Amino acid sequence: MARKLTIGITQGDGNGIGYEVIIKALADERMLDICTPVIYGSSKIFGFYKKQIHNIEQINTNVISSAREAHQKRVNIINCLPDNVFVEPGQATPESAKAAMTSLEWAVKDLKAGNIDALVTAPINKRAMASEGFGYTGHTEYLQQEFGVNDVLMIMVCDKLKVGVVTGHIPLKDVPGSLSEDLILNKLRLMNASLERDFGIYSPKIAVLGLNPHCGDGGLLGDEEQSIILPAVKAANDDGILAFGPYSPDGFFGTGNYSKFDAVLAMYHDQGLIPFKALAFELGVNYTAGLPVVRTSPDHGTAYEMAGRDIADPHSMISSIYTAIDICSHRADYDDLQAGKMNVQSISSEVKPNKNGSVVE
Q: CA distances (Å), 261 to each of 54, 200, 230, 252, in order?
C-alpha cells in the first residue's frame, strides 16, 4: 500500500506477557518504517515492563489522547487506564481483567471510526474477564458482535500452514451436536473468501478434516463424516469452492499432507490448534476472518509464569503485526481489482456491435 498504516495494539492482560512482547516487537526501529503503532493501555505499565527488559535500545514513545494524533516515527500510547493502575505480574486479578476490557473497548471504538487501519490484540485471561462481566468467550466472539456480522472464522496463520475451525470456544462435549452441513458450508465459504481477498490466493484448495477417529471407519466409530461433513464438502464444490475431504485428522499433519493445500478446516478448536502450534508456535498468528475490519493476535496466551522475567518470545506478536499489514494490503489490491472488473463489465454492457461489426454506444 502507498501509505503507512496505523496499527492499534491492545495491551491485553497487563499482568501477563502482553507488554513484554509488544515492547520487544516494537524495539526494532525498522518496525516504525512499515507502520505507526498505537498502544491502548498505560504508559505507566509500559514503563514498568520496559525496565524489566535487558539489552533493548531506547524506545521513543509518544503519549496521545487520540489515534488521530499518532506520531509516525514513535511508539504511541493512549492512556485509557486510571493513573493509579496497579501491576501484579503473574497474577490474574479483577483489576487486570477490567483493564483488558477497557483497552479493547477503546481500540474497537477507534477501529470503527477508521482512526486505526487494523487491530492487533495482546492475550487476555478469558475466565477473569468473564468474571468481571465481559460476556464473551474471547476476542473473536466480541468482535463478531461489535461489528454485527452473522458469522466469523478463526484462522491460525503462518507461512506454511493455515488452519480454521468450525466450532471455536465451546466445550468438547458440545461439538458433535453443534455441527451441521450448513455450518460447515458457511465456514468453507468464509475461508475461501478470506483466502482470496485477505491472502491473495486464487482458487484456493481447502482440506476438510473429519470428526471421528479414522473418519468414522465407515460408520463404525460415528457417522458425522457421511451424514454431515461430506455433504457440506459436496455443496461447497457446487458453489465453486475447491474443498476436499474429509480426511482422517490423526495422520493428516504427521504425513505432511497439509502442504498440498492452501488451508485446512478442522471441526473443533484443539483438533486444529494442537497440530498448528506444534508446527508453528513461535510464528503463529490468530486471524479473525469474516469481519469488515482486520484483526490479528499472537497464538499464545497470557503466560503468567513468564510475566516480568524477560523470557517471553516476541516473534508471534511481530508476525501478528506483519500479518495485519499484509492483509490490509491484499484487501486493497483485491478490492481495486474487483472495482476494475465492475467498470469493465459496465462499459461492456453499454457497448453493442451494429450490423457491420463496429460498435455503437
A: 42, 15, 18, 11
